[in-house]
Amino acid sequence: MIGTIKDVTLDTIVGEVMNMKNDGQRLVTYSTYEAGEGKIGILYHFDKNLETSHLRLVADMDKPIPSVSGVYFAALLVENEIRDQWDVKFDGLVLDFNRTLYLDPEVTQVPLASNVKIAPKK
Question: What is the pLDDT of residue 13?
């Protein structure tokens, strides 16, 4: 990954994303990874004039992560996908598909979180 990486926290992520937008940065996507027992890492990827920059957040999977969909509306798709795949909740998500964006109703195990069971959707 070429570009700069800045570490952020749950308290600073929305403000830092707003700074990126005000700087003319385009939100590209997020990448997620397991960052230790019960933790998720999220890399927020941005582009401006073909130069990339990234924000890195490491958070507890059982605590809501502030949504940046209020800053970049399209972030709702990536955040809903992360919710589907990791069972992570986003606080303030502008449109929450309640874990049904990509997963079929009969799915009973979170795909990327080891041994996490979920109730069938109705």
Answer: 98
